[in-house]
Design goal:
905 residues, alpha+beta, elongated, disordered C terminus, Anoctamin_TM, protein dimerization activity, chloride channel activity
Length: 905
C-alpha cells in the first residue's frame, strides 16, 4: 500500500533517485520465480481496498472482452509494456537464479558485488523492476516461448494514488465545466453560409468532450467533473505519460554512472521495446457494430487513415486524444497547409493555362519562328558551329509559358500567400493550443538525456531542483560545437563541389550532343543535358542527405546537449542548414548565376578550361522549371514510395520473427501486447516535418519559374496525410503521448523561408525573367514589342573572325561594352527589388496588426477559464464567492453559490 501525503512523496522520490533503496513499501504486485504474484489486496473502482479472496470472479466471456488491454484479472489496465528477449536456456537460468535469492539482506550484498558482463542485463532488469514496484506500479509478467527463444512481456499499471500524485506534479489539466463544441472549421462555416454542399464534412462518433479546465490539485478533487469515476477520470494518454515519467526517472544501477531510465536500458539492449498498447485491433469486426461502439483506434482507421477519406476533414480531437498534442499539431499543421495550397494551386493552374492559351500570340516568339536565316547566332561552345535563331522556335514558345506577365503576378501572389498562411496558422495554433489545454505548457524540469547522463564526466546540482545531475563542462561543449561547425562547413563545401561537378557534366553532355551531328539532338542539346544532369543531381542530393543526416546525428550527440529539447533543436538546425544547401543550391545557381558570367565572343569566361554556361534557348526560367519538377516531384515520389513500402517490409520482418515464437496466427491466440510488439517503433516526426518544410521552400522561393508547383505539392500532401495516418494507426507501435503547444522550431524555419521567398521572387522577376526588359522596351520603343528580338541581340566584336557579324543575346555594342539601355534596365531592376520588398513587408506588418494572433472570442474563453480556475483552486472559495456576490448585489449575508459543474447532455 502506498504511503499517504508528504511521506509518500518523499519515499517515492527516494526510490526514483537513490540507487540502493530497498524500502519496505508493500507492492501492488511483484515478480516471483518469473511469474506474477498477485497482491493480497487491490483498489476497487471506488478506491477502497478489497481483499483478493473476496473478489467475485467474472465470467470467462466478460474477462475475455477486456483481456486485450487488461491484466489477467480483467480489471487492471495495462498502461505500459516492457519487452525483452532471451534464449530459452537463458530464461531457465534467470528463473533458477531468481528462485535461489535469499532475501533482502543477501540482495543488498549482491548489489555491491562486481557484475559479470553476461549477468549484468539480468541484474539491471531485476533492480529496475523492484524500483518500479517500490514506486507504486503494479506489474504482471507474460512469456511467449518455443524451444529456442523466449519473449518476455512485463505489463505495468499506474494505480490511482500514484496517478493523483504525478498528475499534480506534472500539472495535468482537469475539467471544471463542460462547454458546447466550438466550430473551429472555418471552411465548413464558409461553405455553410454560401449554401454549398460540403463533401469534406463527415460526422465522427465519440468526439471528445470540451471543458473549461485548470491545473489539477488533489486537495480540490471534489471540484472537478467526474472525480467520482476513478476508472475514467484520467485519460489513457495521461496514464501513459505518468507511466513513462516513472520509467524514465527510475534507477537500475549506480547513480554515479547515470544508470537511470528505460531509454538507456533500451539503448543498452536490456529491453528490446517499451510502449503503451493500442486500444484494440484497428480493423472493423466482421459482424455489424454501431459506430458509437468502435474503439478509438477503429474510429481513427475508419474515419481518418483509410484512403477513401482523402477528401474528408481530419478528426483532430480524436487524434489528440489518442496520440497526444505533439502528433496532433503535426497533422493539424499539415491539413491546414494542404487546405491553403488549394487557392495557390488554383491560381497557379490558371496562370499556366493562360500562358498556354496565349503562347502563340507572343510577338517575340513569332519573330524568332519567322526569322528563317536572318539571325546567325555565335557558337555555344568552342567546338560547336553557328546556328540560326529560328531553330529554337519551339523552345521559345515553351519558354513563354514560364516567363510572361501572369507568372510575375503569381510570384507576387505567392509572396503574400506565404506570409498570410503563417499569420493565420498562428491564430489556428493558439486556438488549438487552448482547446487542447496546452496553451501554457512548458517543461520546467526537463531531465538530462540518457546519452548525456551516460557520457557526462561530472555531477553538479541542478539549479532548479537542487538534485545532483550529470554535468558536462561548458568550455568543452563550446569547443565541440565549434568543431562540429567546421565539419558542417566542410560538408557544405562538398555540396558545392558536387554542384560544380554537375555543371561540368552538363557542359560535357551538351558538347557530346553537338558532336553527334544529329540536327534534332543539336537543337535540343541544352534541354537534354539539363534533364540528365538534374536526374544525376537528384541522386546525389538523396545520397548526400542520407549521409549527412547520420553524420549530423553523431555530431549532435558528440556536442553533448543536456536535454532532449536542446538535442532536437541542434539536430534540426544542422540537418536543415545542410538540406537547404543540398536541395536549393542547384536551383539557386540556375536562377541567379547561370548565364551571368558568360562574356562575349573573344572574351568568354571559363571554368577549368570550359566556357561558362549560358541559359538555354528558352531562357533560364524554363531550365529552372525543369530543375524544380525533377528535384521536387522526384523527391516526393521517392519519399512516398519509401513511406509506403519500408514500414510494410519492417512490419513483415518483425511479424516473421515473432511468429517463429508464438506460432501461426490461425492456431494460436495472439494477445494485444504480442500484436503490438510485431509493429515497428515510431520514428518520430522529424522526417515528416523536414519533407514538408523543404516542399514549402520550393513552392515559395522558386514559384516564379513553375506555376504548377503548388498543384504538385497539393497532390502530394493529399497522399502524405493518408500515408502518415496509416503508419501511425496500423503499422507503428503506439508512441508515448507528448505535450506541445505548437510545432516548435519548425515555425521559425517557415518564417525564415517565407521572408526569403519575398527577396528571391523579387530577384527572379528583376534579373531572371524577361518581364522588365520587355516593359522598358514597350515604354521606350514599341508598345507591341515589334523588333524586340533584334534589339536583344548584339553583334560579335569586329575582331571575332570565326563567324563575323554573328549574334549573341546581350545588351552590348560592337566593342563588347554595355549599352545605355543596359544601365537603364539595371537601375529599373534594382528599383523594382526595393519597391517589391518594401510593399510586401509593409503589407506583412499590416496583416500582423489587423489579424491578432489570439482571436477575440478566444480571449473571452481564456478569461472565463481563469475565473473558474480561481474559484476552484481558492482556499476559501465559498467566502470569496459570497463576498463578490454581495458586493455585486449591494447586500450582505450569505448567498447560495451556484455549482461549477454543468450537466453534459
Amino acid at each position: 500500500m502506498l504511503r499517504k501525503g508528504s511521506e509518500m512523496q518523499k519515499k517515492d522520490k527516494e526510490v526514483l533517485l537513490d540507487l540502493d533503496y530497498e524500502g519496505s513499501i508493500k507492492s501492488y504486485g511483484s515478480l516471483q520465480n518469473g511469474s506474477f504474484s498477485a497482491p493480497k489486496s487491490f483498489l476497487d473502482a471506488s478506491g477502497d481496498m478489497v481483499d483478493r479472496d473476496s473478489i467475485q470472479i467474472q465470467s470467462k466471456d466478460d474477462i475475455n472482452l477486456q483481456m486485450g488491454n487488461y491484466f489477467r484479472d480483467g480489471r487492471t489496465k495495462i498502461d505500459f509494456v516492457l519487452v525483452w528477449e532471451t534464449s530459452s536456456q537463458e530464461s531457465r537460468q534467470e528463473k533458477e537464479r531468481t528462485t535461489n535469492e535469499e532475501g533482502e539482506a543477501s540482495t543488498n550484498v549482491e548489489l555491491n558485488r562486481p557484475e559479470p558482463k553476461k549477468t549484468r542485463p539480468v541484474q539491471w532488469r531485476e533492480r529496475f523492476v523492484r524500483n518500479l514496484e517500490s514506486a507504486g506500479l503494479l506489474t504482471e509478467k507474460e512469456e511467449t516461448t518455443n524451444e529456442s527463444r523466449t519473449i518476455h512481456f512485463l505489463k505495468l499499471n499506474v494505480p490511482w494514488e500514484v496517478m493523483v500524485f504525478y498528475a499534480e506534479e506534472l500539472s495535468f489539466r482537469a475539467p471544471l465545466q463542460a462547454q458546447p463544441y466550438l466550430d473551429f472549421n472555418y471552411s465548413a462555416h464558409l461553405l455553410r453560409r454560401l449554401c454549398i454542399p460540403n463533401i469534406m464534412l463527415e460526422p465522427v462518433p465519440n468526439r471528445p468532450l470540451d471543458y473549461y479546465t485548470c491545473a489539477f490539485r488533489k486537495s480540490k478533487m471534489e471540484n472537478f467533473l467526474g472525480s467520482h469515476d476513478r476508472e475514467n477520470f484520467f485519460t489513457n494518454t495521461q496514464r501513459h505519460r505518468v507511466a513513462y515519467e516513472i520509467l524514465t526517472r527510475t534507477v537500475y544501477g549506480k547513480r554515479k554512472n547515470a544508470q537511470v531510465g528505460v531509454d538507456r536500458l533500451l539503448n543498452e539492449g536490456v529491453y528490446t521495446a517499451a510502449f503503451p498498447l493500442h486500444e484494440g485491433y484497428y480493423k472493423l469486426p466482421t459482424y455489424g457494430v454501431h459506430p458509437e461502439e468502435l474503439n478509438r483506434r477503429q474510429i481513427l482507421y475508419q474515419y481518418w487513415a483509410r484512403w477513401r477519406n482523402w477528401h474528408k476533414y481530419q478528426p483532430l480531437d480524436h487524434i489528440r486524444e489518442y496520440f497526444g498534442e505533439k502528433i496532433a499539431f503535426y497533422f493539424a499543421w499539415l491539413g491546414f497547409y494542404t487546405t491553403w495550397l488549394l487557392p495557390a494551386a488554383l491560381v497557379g493552374t490558371l496562370v499556366f493555362v493562360s500562358g498556354l492559351i496565349s503562347m502563340n500570340t507572343d510577338t517575340a516568339a513569332k519573330e524568332i519562328c519567322n526569322s528563317g536565316g536572318t539571325y546567325l547566332m555565335c557558337p555555344l561552345c568552342n567546338t560547336c558551329k553557328a546556328w540560326n535563331v529560328s531553330d529554337i522556335c519551339t523552345m521559345a514558345k515553351i519558354g513563354y509559358l514560364f516567363d510572361h506577365a501572369g507568372t510575375v503576378f503569381f510570384s507576387i501572389f505567392m509572396s503574400f500567400w506565404a506570409i498570410s498562411f503563417l499569420e493565420y496558422w498562428k491564430r489556428k495554433m493558439v486556438t488549438l493550443a487552448h482547446h487542447w489545454d496546452c496553451m501554457e505548457f512548458h517543461e520546467e524540469e526537463e531531465r538530462p538525456r540518457p546519452e548525456f547522463a551516460a557520457m557526462a564526466t561530472m555531477m553538479e546540482p541542478n539549479p532548479v531542483t537542487g538534485v545532483k545531475e550529470p554535468y558536462f563542462p561548458k568550455r568543452t561543449q563550446l569547443s565541440r560545437m565549434l568543431t562540429g561547425s567546421m565539419v558542417i562547413i566542410i560538408m557544405l563545401c562538398v555540396v558545392m563541389i558536387f554542384l560544380v561537378t554537375v555543371v561540368m557534366c552538363r557542359g560535357i553532355i551538351t558538347v557530346m550532343m553537338f558532336h553527334t551531328r544529329n540536327h534534332l539532338l543539336q537543337i535540343e542539346a541544352g534541354t537534354i543535358a539539363n534533364i540528365l544532369s538534374s536526374i544525376v543531381n537528384l541522386c546525389l542530393i538523396l545520397l548526400m542527405g542520407r549521409i549527412y543526416t547520420a553524420l549530423a546525428e553523431q555530431l549532435t550527440k558528440w556536442e553533448m546537449p543536456r536535454t532532449q529539447t536542446q538535442y532536437e533543436n541542434a539536430f534540426i538546425f544542422k540537418v536543415f542548414i545542410f538540406q537547404f544547401v543540398n536541395f536549393y543550391s542547384s536551383p539557386f545557381y540556375v536562377a541567379f548565376f547561370k548565364g551571368r558570367f558568360v562574356g562575349y565572343p573573344n572574351n568568354y569566361g571559363t571554368l577549368f578550361g570550359m566556357r561558362n554556361e549560358d541559359c538555354g534557348p528558352g531562357g533560364c526560367l524554363i531550365e529552372l522549371a525543369q530543375q524544380l519538377f525533377i528535384i521536387m516531384v522526384g523527391k516526393q515520389f521517392i519519399n512516398n514510395v519509401q513511406e509506403f513500402v519500408i514500414p510494410k517490409v519492417r512490419v513483415w520482418l518483425q511479424k516473421r520473427g515473432v511468429y517463429k515464437v508464438i506460432g501461426a496466427k490461425e492456431t494460436v491466440e495472439i494477445h494485444r501486447w504480442e500484436e503490438d510488439y510485431q509493429l515497428v517503433k515510431s520514428e518520430g516526426l522529424f522526417e515528416e516535418y523536414l519533407e514538408m518544410v523543404l516542399q514549402f521552400g520550393f513552392i515559395t522561393i522558386f514559384v516564379a519559374a513553375c506555376p504548377l508547383a503548388p498543384l504538385f505539392a497539393l497532390l502530394n500532401n493529399w497522399v502524405e496525410i493518408r500515408l502518415d495516418a496509416h503508419k501511425f494507426v496500423c503499422e507503428y507501435q503506439r508512441p508515448v503521448a507528448e505535450r506541445a503547444q505548437n510545432i516548435g522550431v519548425w515555425l521559425n524555419i517557415l518564417e525564415i523561408l517565407s521572408h526569403m521567398s519575398v527577396t528571391a521572387n523579387a530577384f527572379l522577376i528583376a534579373f531572371t525573367a524577361d518581364f522588365l526588359p520587355r516593359l522598358l522596351y514597350k515604354y521606350k520603343f514599341d508598345n507591341e514589342l515589334h523588333g524586340y528580338m533584334n534589339f536583344t541581340l548584339a553583334y560579335a566584336p569586329l575582331n571575332y573572325t570565326d563567324y563575323p557579324l554573328c549574334r549573341y543575346k546581350d545588351f552590348r555594342d560592337n566593342n563588347g561594352n554595355y549599352t545605355l539601355f543596359y544601365w537603364e534596365l539595371l537601375a529599373i531592376r534594382l528599383g523594382f527589388i526595393i519597391a517589391f520588398e518594401h510593399v510586401v513587408f509593409f503589407v506583412l506588418r499590416a496583416i500582423e496588426w489587423v489579424i491578432p494572433d489570439v482571436p477575440e472570442s478566444l480571449e473571452v474563453k481564456i478569461k472565463r477559464e481563469r475565473y473558474l480556475a480561481k474559484q476552484a483552486l481558492a482556499e476559501n472559495h465559498e467566502v470569496l464567492f459570497q463576498g463578490v456576490t454581495a458586493a455585486t448585489l449591494g447586500t450582505s449575508g450569505p448567498v447560495n453559490r451556484p455549482s461549477l459543474r454543468t450537466n453534459v447532455t
